[in-house]
Amino acid sequence: MILVRVQGGLGNQMFQYAFGKMLAKKNNTNLKIDTSLLIDAIQQKGAVIRNFDLDIFNITQEFATQKEITRFNGYPKGTLFERIYFKVSKLFSNANLLIQHQHTFNKQHLNVPNNTCIVGRWQSELYFKEAITEVVTDFEIKQSWLLNTEFTQHILANKNAVSVHVRREDYVVDENNNVVRSGLVNGNLGLDYYVEAIKYIQSKIETPTFFIFSEDMEWCQNNLQFITNAIYVKTEKTKKGMAEDLHLIGLCKHHITSHSTFSWWGAYLSKNNSKIVIAPKQWSNTSSEFAPPHIIPTNWITL
Questions:
Q1: Block means of pLDDT (10 residues each) for the chain, length 303 residues?
Q2: Domain boundary pick from 138, 172, 192
Q3: How is the chain classified by DSSP, letter by letter?
Q4: 223 and 292 part of one domain
């Protein structure tokens, strides 16, 4: 068994599942999912609430039992006796725990054995390339989660549809109306990035139409007026809206991503073999650990 402890939003959960899928395939074993870190976050004051979102896909997820979770991770909030019992039992157990301390790609992690619990971000296609066919198949969105908005036909009818993703969720307001960090480390991209990316696409693609995706559409309409031939994709701010956005981004022929794993996956899963994908060169404003070349595929353009 490979046990993956999922955490973060949909894009992060997809990276974690994908690595677990590769390890399960390599070890000819089953993959199980542990959602306890998502539940723990709900109980933390000021934490960004995340839900288990992988159920929008055509995967048959198998959730780990509490006994299986404890076997790998012990009793974090247990009694002294329980913590001592876990340490002693580990001496006679074949259960392995792999925690990713650095977010850069580590080739040694590809050789993780069976009976391992993995905890980390695993944000690189290098962690799942050996199972890419299975991963792409698993990430087909269930029809029941799609809204089938009019944007679907707009994109399909446009031979040069370009997705533009704008991430604007890096700050939240707490219960005292103070602006606080949401736990994200990326910061917001400046308009210069989008100006440069739009110019690059226009130099390569004839009469592109830009489809704008964001959770803050009001900001986009007020600040992206320099983008001609733009369509602002407004979907529900629900889980179904999230699934629809991911689906629509994937339908576009070319992509301008933000420093978001959500838009990363939308562009990555696009089936256009000649797609142009532009991503920010500086993925994080706090650490080079999140920067290319590990999170950005080598055939993408960075600006």
A1: 95 97 97 88 57 94 90 65 52 77 88 95 95 97 90 93 87 40 53 95 96 93 93 92 96 95 96 95 62 79 94
A2: 138
A3: -EEEE--SSHHHHHHHHHHHHHHHHHTT--EEEE-HHHHHHHTSTTPPP----GGGBS----BPPHHHHHHHH--TT--HHHHHHHHHHHTT---EEEE--S-S--GGGGG--SSEEEES---SGGGTGGGHHHHHHHTPBPGGG----HHHHHHHT-TTEEEEEE---SEEE-TTS-EEE-S--S----HHHHHHHHHHHHHHSSS-EEEEEES-HHHHHHH-TT-SSEEE----SSHHHHHHHHHHHHHSSEEE--S-HHHHHHHHT---TT--EEE-S---SS-GGG-TTTSS-TTSEE-
A4: yes
